[in-house]
Write a structure and sequence with these properties.
The protein has 6 helices and no strands. The chain is mainly α. The chain has one domain. It is globular and about 50 Å long. The two termini are 23 Å apart.
């Protein structure tokens, strides 16, 4: 697999993509009313660990973080961003953290949801790194040479 060399505009592309995602997530509360079920009351709350149970939103965090990390990795790779898997992991985990901070002003900051975001991002990261390793031409050549 041939990687695209980084060009001077790659850093700017990376920054622009992250800023766009930040603006979209910051404005999501009034653009998408079903994304936030509770009204904002201005007080930051943290849900206690014993009261923070795994529910369907926890698995939505896991699935969304996984597929978001995989999708962003593919996009970053096509744009030519070096270390696209790390950037995709970081971006999605950052978006999950922003979502939980926003939830802190609504129903409460959930550490379990953030944990599920981390697990989903990690699974997406290792999926893409593993797929790149499997499809690496050098590895296939070494395996073929050893098997002779």
């Amino acid at each position: 697999m041939k990687r695209i060399e980084a060009n001077p505009g790659a850093a700017m592309n990376r920054i622009l993509v992250m800023l766009c995602l930040l603006v979209i997530s910051a404005n999501a509360s009034w653009k998408v009313p079903w994304l936030f079920e509770h009204p904002r009351d201005g007080k930051f709350k943290v849900i206690e660990w014993k009261n923070d149970s795994f529910d369907n939103t926890s698995f939505q965090h896991l699935g969304g973080s996984y597929f978001g990390t995989v999708a962003l990795d593919i996009i970053y790779d096509k744009v030519g961003v070096d270390n696209s898997s790390i950037w995709a992991f970081t971006t999605m985990l950052g978006l999950g953290l922003l979502k939980e901070v926003e939830d802190g002003y609504r129903e409460g900051f959930s550490r379990r949801d953030l944990l599920m975001d981390f697990i989903g991002c990690s699974l997406g990261y290792f999926t893409m790194v593993g797929l790149r390793y499997i499809h690496n031409e050098n590895r296939i050549e070494i395996v073929y040479t050893i098997s002779l």
